[in-house]
Design brief:
about 525 residues; mainly beta; Methylamine Dehydrogenase, Chain H; five-stranded mixed beta sheet; 38 strands; about 35% strand
Length: about 525
């Protein structure tokens, strides 16, 4: 089953743009090669600056390459999980900087140990830009939580396109606890409390962001927030990003185009049951007027899972118009009321991939071409800056360290999967079908590797191996022990349906869902 658009119709109407023939021809000429000299540069011009809030971005000089030294083995420690008091993978990409991928080993001879459901598919009807259709399985981003409980049991938590959140025994695939039913597709990725409270945080296409108590006989919603409950929503009412829990605070961006910090007020009652009393303590727009002027539309939803740099107290997120922002929320997280935008960069187009923060504080950002609206005003910026970029937030007026163009410039072309930072190398999938490896320091493109596309899932590096799912339904493992050389395929496993979701790796097991309708547990033979 081929991927379909992951967007709902805009809640407040979809702007139909009439394009004159002469404009269309001009754009086709643009894309056909008139600016090819700008496409495949591994180093973007240092002169490309973040536009000021009061002005639209201006053109910049052509990129020039940096020297590309041979890679040297990295000695930096691998990032760890956000949960430090118990084992597990509790959120999309594992931690606040979105660069923890689980724990190996990976199976050497993988087989499907279980399928959920054992027959049939996880399917429901839902409406998007193209009408009402049947959706099946799991989609973007769709990485499961994997919780290793104190009694040794493994629980796999994942939302699916049957409007349910599922809680499965990781060793058998049977129900670990009853499903949680929502009113529409449960897509994106959810988050389990990293401090050990029995709480689960996730949104749905039914407008609601939820806090779910897991210490009852069945998962119980103890709080929910409707994306349409406050004025000023700009695009939609879905919640795609995995909420990020930092202590007693929940950080989340919505497709209504707003970013929220919510104080949870977690506690236990006299009977020992977990309770919350959430209050929104910060709400800021994911856009500004300069961005609206630059793109000429209001498709500016926040769909990435926000990232947080604990060393600076800055949270980073982007939107579908290409605006990357950083807000200092350190005072808010300490119970205060002050916050300030400290970083702004407009990269030109749809930025749904989560921002990744490396140990030095650099940002890795993936961009793709918007597919919901016609956006010719963004074409110059799209061609000046590659679809994968490294930004230095310490240089807010000139943050672009390098960029590489992966994929093309047609509808949805570029990056939708979140890049992976691993031992000094960036691994990134591009939607046209394939992945690439890039030197994180210099921006040197080591190689590209073609796969059946579109490839929407995020690459997963663990133990010098790389897991990627493709549109043909194959889960693939590559040997990346030598990051600068094109990798060897170690094994391939046919799962029978397009893999848009990101796999989770945990102690010899791989958990992933497909658009074919099922969630799989994969390990070595018994």
């Amino acid at each position: 089953m081929q991927p379909t658009s992951h967007r709902r119709p805009p809640h407040r109407g979809f702007r139909v743009v009439a394009v004159l023939l002469v404009v269309t021809v001009a754009v086709l000429l643009w894309r056909s090669g008139a600016v090819d000299s700008l496409f495949n540069k591994t180093k973007a011009a240092a002169a490309i600056e973040s536009p000021s809030p009061s002005a639209s971005p201006s053109p910049s000089p052509s990129p020039s390459p940096l020297p590309s030294p041979s890679p040297t083995p990295t000695t930096e420690a691998l990032p760890g999980p956000i949960n430090t008091t118990f084992p597990g993978l509790t959120t999309f990409r594992g931690n606040a900087t979105r660069d923890y991928y689980g724990e190996g080993p990976l199976p050497r001879h993988p087989v499907i140990r279980w399928r959920y459901p054992t027959s049939g598919g996880l399917c429901a009807s839902s409406k998007d830009l193209f009408g009402t259709r049947t959706w099946c399985g799991t989609g973007w981003t769709g990485q499961p939580n994997v919780i290793q409980h104190a009694n040794g049991s493994i629980e796999v938590r994942e939302g699916a396109y049957d409007d349910h959140y599922h809680f499965l025994n990781g060793l058998t695939g049977r129900q670990y606890r009853p499903d949680l039913l929502t009113g529409d597709l449960a897509k994106g990725s959810a988050t389990s409390d990293a401090d050990g409270f029995p709480l689960y945080y996730g949104g749905s296409r039914d407008n609601l962001l939820r806090v779910v108590a897991m210490d009852r006989p069945a998962p119980t919603i103890v709080w929910s927030f409707d994306a349409d409950s406050q004025p000023g929503g700009m695009w939609n009412d879905d919640w795609d990003g995995a909420p990020l829990e930092i202590g007693d605070y929940l950080l989340e961006g919505g497709e209504n185009s707003w970013f929220y910090v919510i104080r949870l007020h977690r506690r236990y009652d006299a009977k020992g049951k977990v309770q919350v009393n959430p209050k929104t303590v910060m709400r800021v727009p994911g856009w500004d007027q300069a961005e609206l002027d630059a793109i000429g539309d209001t498709d500016i939803s926040i769909e990435d899972s926000v990232a947080f740099d604990a060393t600076t107290g800055v949270v980073y997120f982007a939107n579908s118009g290409g605006l990357v922002q950083g807000w200092d929320i350190s005072d808010v997280l300490n119970g205060g009321t002050k916050y300030k935008r400290v970083f702004r960069f407009w990269n030109g187009d749809d930025t749904d991939a989560s921002i990744v923060i490396d140990p030095e504080g650099y940002l890795y950002v993936g961009r793709k071409m918007e597919d919901n609206v016609y956006r010719p005003s963004s074409f110059p910026r799209d061609h000046q800056i590659g679809s994968l970029m490294k930004l230095d937030p310490r240089k807010p007026k000139n943050p672009l360290a390098w960029s590489v163009q992966l994929g093309g410039f047609e509808r949805d072309g570029g990056l939708l999967g979140t890049p992976a930072y691993y031992k000094g190398t960036i691994y990134a999938t591009y939607t046209e079908g394939g992945f690439a490896a890039i030197n994180a320091k210099t921006g040197k493109l080591y190689y590209t590797y073609s796969l059946p596309g579109p490839t929407w899932g995020s690459p997963v590096p663990v133990d010098d191996k790389l897991l990627i799912g493709d549109a043909a339904g194959d889960l693939l493992e590559f040997d990346i022990s030598n990051p600068s050389k094109k990798p060897k395929l170690v094994w391939s496993l046919d799962l029978g349906g397009t893999i848009e979701s990101t796999p989770a790796v945990w102690h010899g097991w791989i958990y992933v869902g497909t658009r074919g309708g099922a969630i799989y547990g994969i390990s070595g033979p018994k």
